[in-house]
Amino acid sequence: MNLRTRVLIFGGILGALIGVVAAYLYLRSAPIQLDESGRERLPAVSPGEALKVGLGILSAIRQIVGLGRPGAA
Q: Model pTM?
């Protein structure tokens, strides 16, 4: 297995673990509500909050990409 494949597999596993932890933390912080049929529902996420999270993720990805550039210390 070459280096590129190992890095992609490691990144995929790490991304999945981070996603599971983020979902767990969201479930712990969000109040679970019951709808009229008795099923559990999460409150709607506001567009402003979704935008903040999206920009934060893009910023983190940009920083990770910058790690591979020469002289990016």
A: 0.69
Written as tens digits, the pLDDT of the chain (73 aa) is 899 999 999 999 999 999 999 999 989 998 988 888 889 998 888 999 999 999 999 999 899 888 877 765 5
- The count of other CB atoms within 10 Å of the CB of residue 53 is 13
**Between the CA atoms of 5, 9, 10 and 13, what dihedral angle is there, to the nearest 10 degrees?**
170
